[in-house]
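Q: What would this chain look like folded?
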Amino acid sequence: MTEISQLHSESFHAPDSEKGISIPVVNALSEKLTVEIRREGKIFRQEYKHGIPQTPVMTVGITNETGTSVTFLPDTEIFGSAFDPAKISELTNEISINYPRLSVQFNG
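A: My prediction, written as structure tokens:
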């Protein structure tokens, strides 16, 4: 695995949306974004700041699991400092219904 940039072609289709939200867009609009991929018995991680890689792809552990985790902190200069937790909870519930194997967590 040379880069996590392979995710750039992936998009997430939010419920009731017509277009997907791609990882590069989320990355560019985030103060910080971390991607973890669990595959081939290893955990790989790369961290970004405003869309710019801050670390190389690192092997950070071993696992029997597979999957991808994306954790991000929205840029407060773009979005302001507050999100409506009730609205995010509602959207999280909709996503969970449409994608039952997907885990979405909001830490507000």
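The chain is about 20% helix and 35% strand.
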